[in-house]
Amino acid sequence: MPAISSTSHRRMAIRQNNVTRRVSTMTITFHLNGEEVTLPDAEPTVTLLDWLREERHLTGTKEGCNEGDCGACTVMVTDPNGSKSLNSCILFLPQLNGKSVRTVEGVASDTGELHPVQQEMITHHGSQCGFCTPGFVMSMVTAHKNGATDHDDQLAGNLCRCTGYAPIIRAAEAVEEQPVPVWIKKEGTELPAPANAGEFSPRSSDELAKVYADNPDAVLVAGATDVGLWVTKGMRQLDPVIFLEGCADLKQIEVTDTRVRLGAMVDMNAMREVIEPLHPSYGEMIRRYASMPVRNAATVGGNIANGSPIGDNPPALIALGATLHLRKGDSRRDIALEDFFIEYGKQDRAAGEFVEAVSFPRQADTLRVYKISKRFDQDISAVLGAFNVTVDNGTVASARIAFGGMAGTPHRATHVENALIGQPWTEETVTKAMAEFGKDYTPMTDMRASADYRLDSASNLLARYFAEMNGETTSVLEVAI
Amino acid sequence: MNDLSNKGPVAKPLPHDAALLHVTGKARYIDDIPMPVDCLHLAFGTSPIAKGRIQSMDLSEVKASKGVVAVLTADDLPFTNDVSPSIHDEPLLSDGTVNHVGQPVFLVVATGHNLARAAAKKGKIDYVEETPILTMDEAMAANSRFEDGPRIYTKGDPAAAIDAAPRSVKGTFEIGGQEHFYLEGQAALALPQEGCDMLVSSSTQHPTEIQHKVAEAIGLPMHAVRVETRRMGGGFGGKESQGNALAVSCAIAARHTGKPCKMRYDRDDDMIITGKRHEFRITYRAGFDNDGQLLGVEFHHMTRCGWAQDLSLPVADRAMLHADNAYAIPAIRIESHRLKTNTQSATAYRGFGGPQGMVGIERVMDHIAHDLGLDPVELRKRNYYDAPNNRVRADNTTPYGMEVTDFELHGMTDQLLETSDYAARKAEIAEWNKGQSRLKRGIAFSPVKFGISFTLTHLNQAGALVHVYQDGSVHLNHGGTEMGQGLFQKVAQVAASRFGVGMDVIKITATDTAKVPNTSATAASSGSDLNGMAVKAACDTIRDRMAEFLSERHQCDAKAVKFEDGQVIIGDDVMTFEEAASQCYQGRISLSSTGYYKTPKVKWDRIKGQGRPFFYFSYGAAITEVVVDQLTGENRILRTDILHDAGASLNPDLDIGQVEGAYVQGTGWLTTEELVWDDKGSLRTHAPSTYKIPACSDRPDVFNVDLWDGRNPEDTIYRSKAVGEPPFNLGISTFLALSDAVSAFGDAYPALDAPATAEQVYTTIRRVRDGV
Ligand SMILES: Cc1cc2nc3c(=O)[nH]c(=O)nc-3n(C[C@H](O)[C@H](O)[C@H](O)COP(=O)(O)OP(=O)(O)OC[C@H]3O[C@@H](n4cnc5c(N)ncnc54)[C@H](O)[C@@H]3O)c2cc1C
Ligand code: FES
Ligand code: FES
């Protein structure tokens, strides 16, 4: 490993069982409830939640699951792009460099005047045991600041076991028309200058390329919605880690007349904004991807690079014919996204190579993406099906169909595609093609679904696609009374 | 004094007493108590196998792990090794055998929570594996059970009645368990005191039990252990006995190290170690006439109790006691098997077996309505117990011989049918379904009659301690615990009303075994019934003393002294409550009192299944509408209407909160909340990523909840009724609505199993539609 020159990137010796292990620490600066905090020796994989509760004794922020799934730990984080809710239990301190954090202790005014969200939660009996409440308050304060009134989506990541949610929604609705308090409005207007956190916290993809090529064993951390769990649940000691958060150029989005290109660090909510107008069905899937705070962290690069067989974006992107842009040092290569996934746990990515971006052709909207899970919101897919079929004069001209949850990797349903291409786009063709799914996939049984159900529902989704393309109502989510 | 003439704060919709603390993050739970200096943290090393013996244990790596101070095994326990709430069959740490995946084997004491967790994963233990008993079928085959055989309650001769009946149905029904998923995991903190005494803070519904188990574990009388509980971040029954292991561990480690010790389960550990709602399989046979009158019913209950007895017997009893729900069944037999398996020890969960029993008979009613093609509400109404003012049946006794005298459901049902526009909507849905091939809607009604009282009669007692200080402020304490249900607020409203003062005068304080001893768990929905009455008794004792003293001074009749609006009215004189307190103090009047209450009238023989286990019944009714998709089984609630009976509510807003929350929780149990164990007995759904409780958007789009304008005919606190558990059962209407929607796909009876996940619904639709 090369010598580390930066003063702000130190190595701290930890004596453990007479073996000296070195942990790379980082200097970071951020605002906490309006006060500047500089941590000269932050251990990179300490979570904000542990730090708040154990070091700062700010115990208002709760731990309900320690894995991003309950929202008890929600905080508001503001950066130059605005304020967003994040799960502090899977948020590492260096991800906060140069940002501003507000916890439940910091949403009333200095003089103790309650935030309208707090007041309405009291008025509408939005808390019972109160353990989920700080997290709800933070999600609601953030939504209110951003003028968002899609409450079910804003709160999909906050679980409450007591209230049944109804009073919380009543509180959220009661706040809608009330002005954002000045002390919250001005949050983020003066952000601290990020500390120089050192080369393991690169500021551009070029810097990243260099440090990663030099340290191919390092763990890349994008949104930490996977990596966070390796630490909080797997109890893994990660060292060194490279934080991608500072690489502004990796957050770039380019939409031209012919292509869409998303930098690896584009988070799910930013992605949803781009995708929604082009492919509403894909946008709807992203709406159901995890929850607001997880989407604010999770990146498209991470969702691809982790190689998960149940990642939601890969099948949709494969159906769109996406290209993956990889980079190692100064050399770059482009591959078809579907070729990236070799087998379970194995991807076509060399040591020191990272995902720079993903791009796909802009096309007419024939894409439909269906997510099947036990619960509609904040659930991992049992089956994720993406269909992209074009029909020319009543005959199927092209078909790209890809699934997640059906095999060790996300991949295409080639037999089904072949059964469609060149055939008349009719119910008969569809029925025949549905029988081909068994040739493409041998799914497994696990706690999310049985193999039979996976296979049946996957092939039924083709029927749904056909019906939907014929303009029929196909989803229970569309039924209203 | 007339209870209802001037209620003061009682019956007012005041917010939860801690609402302000909740929304500002200042409400303290166990893990938020400022950490004592030198506090140590604990974690269990647990068994990876479902059944076996420990051959050898190498804990050297655990001991060498960073921050570890001590590692304890069963051999290091100074006194008893038991955390069972019932029959001493639950060792804190494995006694050499292991009986489920996740059973605690050793205890790590370390300088940090995460350090303890990390170390706990490093144990090297060799087990001799044995074949576990995991399923109910395996347990039945092996006769692996609690008690010597099944419990059987019988009324009449149901077999003959069914055989002779014009029509009959039969079937088998699987009902999954349920994880409590209290948002705050189990937690405890022990502070060693002088002379080996122990002060324990515990997130528990049952401080007295914690005190008892801790005292046993450290070899001291109960007087040496004080347990305090200010609040829990949710309990739902999961903190009735499951906190014992943590509190006892903390006390033992604190005794061992002389330092404060804290333990909280990480969520995954919590779900892997602790017990859940009992899973049931109910097999039934029912005979009825062509009008749908029930003639006889037979139930066969099997329940998976897990490895230790815990509270399984009364849970299974309560399932039997709710096998009739709202229906007068002339002949019935309920046979209940409590099966012992190598899985987590199933425990108390909101409803305590009642919901499982109730969903059994509701399933039968659903089946019969389908068989007869009769409107399911009409069928139910025909079988209801009689209203008190309109007796038509010769026999209105339950299967266990208790006369039903307070039946409210006739009026409630009619009102709900009207407010929910049931008939018109049912017709509209049928019409809509005709035009749809893939999506179908369904609607269903379900009533609730839930018995209130602990079935273990001696638990129906409570104590309180009330002090009035010389400045007129009031310190309130009782044996009930606060887990979000608003008990403290409701009881404080009672106290304020008794003294005729404002809420700000009453100080709510943490449950404390040193203030009120020998308390029962806050469970069985009994919290405000029992503690409200005990507090009333304490307040009235003080009030009567004050009245007597003041009336003597002012030469009037003590009965004429009134406590109202912060004032004490003594004949023609008026003084503030504060002044009255001061005068009483100076007049050497005791301003402190305990209060005590025991529920009258209950008497029950659980072996015979005869008597009056319940003081009264709480009622409720719900109508739920859903839509399902035949391609995937995906489903969703569109609208729910609820009418619930809280008697004369102590606080209508808090009660409505209980009803809304309970309905959603009950719906979760029967829909998305699926517990999955693999074939090695390992729970695969041990985190919120895989175990799905309802999220925000899962609540009904339209959600109308109302309280029935009622009054408890029994003499309860201000004629209110218990409201914690009964509305949980309203979720059954969701399950029945799904069954109704599924039945629109074909002619066969759906026979849907629970939980009705999308997959379950999909499979059932196929069966109904294609007969596969
Ligand atoms: C509560 C919760 C809900 C979730 N729900 C969903 C869901 O509904 N659908 C779904 O698909 N996923 C879901 N996930 C999984 C997770 O959010 C995604 O996989 C996410 O996209 C990972 O992105 P990240 O930026 O957080 O990655 P990280 O956790 O930072 O990294 C993930 C992996 O990718 C590597 N990596 C990251 N960026 C790069 C890069 N540019 N080049 C190379 N390697 C890189 C990391 O080293 C690591 O191995 C959920 C996770 C949580 C915690
Ligand atoms: S603690 Fe549950 S999301 Fe963070
Ligand atoms: S109020 Fe208890 S979990 Fe929400």
Automatic annotation (TrEMBL), chain B:
Q: Does the keyword Oxidoreductase apply?
A: yes
Lineage, top-rank taxon, reads Bacteria
| Entry coiled-coil feature ranges | none
Q: What class of enzyme is it?
A: oxidoreductase
Q: Where in or outside the cell is it found?
A: Periplasm
Domain Aldehyde oxidase/xanthine dehydrogenase a/b hammerhead: start-end pairs: 24-131
Matching SMART domains: Ald_Xan_dh_C
Q: How does it assemble?
A: Heterotrimer composed of PaoA, PaoB and PaoC.
Q: Relate the protein's function as given in its record.
A: Oxidizes aldehydes to the corresponding carboxylic acids with a preference for aromatic aldehydes. It might play a role in the detoxification of aldehydes to avoid cell damage.
Q: Which family does it belong to?
A: Belongs to the xanthine dehydrogenase family.
**What PANTHER family does the record tag this protein with?**
ALDEHYDE OXIDASE 1-RELATED (PTHR11908:SF132), XANTHINE DEHYDROGENASE (PTHR11908)
This one is known as: Aldehyde oxidoreductase molybdenum-binding subunit PaoC
Instruction: Name the source organism.
Output: Parasedimentitalea huanghaiensis
